[in-house]
């Protein structure tokens, strides 16, 4: 089969550099860019902010922030001061110490970024929570992590069941006229009074830094722990994959509640001393193009669902804006359709570069580098210094063009170090021989390009967000009308997948459109809007194994009109 390729169009290094690096790349050498290589003093936040504030980048803008109400910018020098203040406030009023879990549950704002950096400067472990989470989702995460401190807003505090969280000692509220009583502290007031200088907690490279909760196909969401050492990979992927250079204006559209919004919304850009644009507010195609024009964005990192939504807003809209500043566009989170890449060529005259990685990998693992030919539909090639292979279920490496488990050899710098409170779960990711099993299936072609085929498990990727069916099913079962629930991802042209729920009702309840809507709202307000099923179908009974487990694979087969496969374990 002849595979289409798109030629190299831009990039600040060439294929030869890349090939050289590929042959000789050594993570030990890669460490030499950090100040700790000389001083021995390690802290991600120092490396991302203070080091630049003490250099020629002192007055360079680190953060451009814009939403409907605010339009602000902060230099590296100012970021140093504000993050120091945040550190002082957390220490003084929240008694935050090294290793404590500090959770941050709020919409994007400069204060969110000051808090993340301030907490990391104290050696704390930051847990960012997506603002759309509702009470059930918030409680699960705060409980499992035994978070000691929470930073949130007056709008969101109602979703935090404070009385049911004995470990949570202090809650900072970011707002105006905050009433200080019990565990509640007025964050802005304390920030205004705080000291600009902070004693940074120097940590071990293997100390915890960030805890992202993510979903699998079974069980509650799990806490994926990353350590300061991850900065090595954040830095070098920001250089090689994002191709960030001194004069770039970079925009990552992801929220820090998800790993892309921290690894490449905070760490990667700031470790490399790049000007970083952060926007708040809802997605609107006009606003997005306006952002690119107004800030003169040069490097733009987003996701297939967003590109597809922009695509459906039409090509005429694109022409109303001056997008000529763009030089490098990237995508992550779901399969990037060749059609979208072709559209990008047409309207931006630029290639969109796919990248593959996961919450657990902490940073890019596979990418289309600026200097290489793109094969639309392929995720690209492994990052230098990381061994990626397609393996069978026993860990045997498969030859080219054979589909199997997408696996990574243990030991890349930004690999997760723990599943919080769950060592068995952590171990279950690895096969003998040191292969980390991603849960994705893929094949590698004879040129080393990797082609995504699907998830091996039941994890749903909807609009680039990872949703575990178990979490949604558990919530559905809390609804009084529901006796049984099974949840699957249903293919969708814009969102990649949407969530579809099959439910069987308890006696006394009748299927109706009103009931569907009520169930949808129930999940929306109990868990999160993005986790609510867009489609609900009533069934008298759901397919189960003899041990009572809902067979999602059969539900999926029903939905897609496919053969259901082996039904020998199904109850009558
Ligand atoms: O299935 C893969 C999909 O997203 C999963 C990881 O989700 P999460 O941990 O939320 O991280 C998303 C962003 C880092 C993967 O197991 N995925 C990620 N990138 C791609 C992708 N699927 C296809 N193509 C990609 N480029």
TrEMBL record:
Residue stretches making up the AMP-dependent synthetase/ligase domain: 50-419
Family: Belongs to the ATP-dependent AMP-binding enzyme family.
Protein name: acetate--CoA ligase
Native source species: Siminovitchia fortis
Enzyme Commission number(s) of this protein: 6.2.1.1
InterPro entries linked: AMP-bd_C, AMP-bd_C_sf, AMP-binding_CS, AMP-dep_synth/lig_dom, ANL_N_sf
Signal peptide annotation: none
One MF annotation (Gene Ontology) recorded for this entry: acetate-CoA ligase activity
Residues annotated as domain AMP-binding enzyme C-terminal: 471-549
Keywords from the named record: Acetylation, ATP-binding, Ligase, Nucleotide-binding
GO CC terms, sorted: cytosol
NCBIfam families: PRK04319.1
GO biological process, one term: acetyl-CoA biosynthetic process
Enzyme class: ligase
């Amino acid at each position: 089969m002849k595979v289409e390729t798109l030629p190299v169009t831009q990039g600040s290094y060439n294929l030869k550099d890349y090939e050289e690096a590929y042959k000789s790349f050594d993570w030990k050498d890669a460490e030499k860019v950090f100040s700790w290589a000389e001083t021995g003093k390690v802290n991600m936040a120092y490396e991302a902010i203070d080091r630049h504030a003490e250099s020629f980048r002192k007055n360079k803008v680190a953060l451009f922030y814009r939403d409907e109400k605010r339009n602000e910018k902060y230099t590296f020098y100012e970021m140093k001061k504000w993050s120091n203040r945040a550190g002082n406030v957390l220490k003084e009023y929240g008694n935050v110490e090294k290793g404590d879990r500090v959770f941050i549950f709020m919409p994007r704002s400069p204060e969110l970024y000051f808090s993340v950096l301030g907490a990391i400067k104290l050696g704390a472990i930051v847990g960012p929570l997506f603002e759309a989470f509702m009470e059930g989702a918030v409680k699960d995460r705060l409980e499992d992590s035994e978070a000691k401190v929470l930073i949130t807003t007056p709008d969101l505090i109602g979703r935090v069941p404070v009385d049911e969280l004995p470990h949570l000692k202090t809650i900072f509220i970011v707002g105006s006229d905050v009433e200080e009583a019990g565990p509640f502290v007025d964050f802005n007031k304390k920030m205004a009074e705080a000291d600009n200088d902070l004693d940074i907690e120097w940590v071990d490279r293997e100390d915890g830094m960030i805890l992202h909760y993510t979903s699998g196909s079974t069980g509650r969401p799990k806490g994926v722990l990353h350590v300061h050492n991850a900065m090595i990979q954040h830095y070098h992927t920001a250089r090689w994959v994002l191709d960030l250079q001194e004069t770039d204006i970079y925009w990552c559209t992801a929220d820090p509640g998800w790993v892309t919004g921290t690894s490449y919304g905070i760490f990667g850009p700031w470790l490399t001393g790049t000007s970083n644009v952060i926007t708040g507010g809802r997605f609107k195609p006009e606003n997005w193009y306006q952002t690119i024009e107004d800030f003169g964005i040069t490097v733009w990192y987003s996701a297939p669902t967003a590109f597809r939504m922009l695509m459906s807003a039409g090509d005429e809209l694109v022409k109303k804006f001056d997008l000529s500043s763009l030089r490098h566009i990237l995508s992550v989170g779901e399969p990037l359709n060749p059609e979208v890449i072709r559209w990008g060529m047409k309207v931006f005259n630029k290639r969109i570069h796919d990248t593959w990685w996961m919450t657990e990998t902490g940073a890019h693992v596979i990418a289309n580098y600026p200097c290489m030919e793109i094969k639309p539909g392929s995720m690209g090639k492994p990052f230098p210094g990381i061994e990626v292979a397609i393996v069978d279920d026993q860990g045997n490496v498969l030859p080219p063009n054979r589909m199997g488990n997408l696996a990574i050899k243990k030991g890349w710098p930004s690999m997760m170090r723990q599943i919080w409170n769950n060592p068995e779960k952590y171990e279950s990711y690895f096969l003998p021989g040191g292969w980390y099993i991603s849960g994705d299936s893929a094949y590698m072609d004879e040129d080393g390009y990797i082609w995504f085929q699907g998830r091996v498990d039941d994890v749903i990727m909807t609009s680039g967000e990872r949703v575990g069916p178990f979490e949604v099913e558990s919530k559905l079962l809390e609804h009084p009308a529901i006796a049984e629930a099974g949840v699957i991802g249903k293919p969708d042209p814009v969102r990649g997948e949407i969530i579809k729920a099959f439910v069987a009702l308890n006696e006394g309840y009748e299927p109706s459109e009103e009931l569907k809507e009520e169930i949808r709202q129930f999940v929306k307000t109990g868990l999160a809007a993005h986790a609510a099923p867009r489609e609900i179908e009533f069934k008298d009974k759901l397919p189960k194994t003899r041990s009572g487990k809902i067979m999602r694979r059969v539900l999926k087969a029903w939905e897609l009109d496919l053969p259901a496969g082996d039904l020998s374990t199904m109850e009558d």
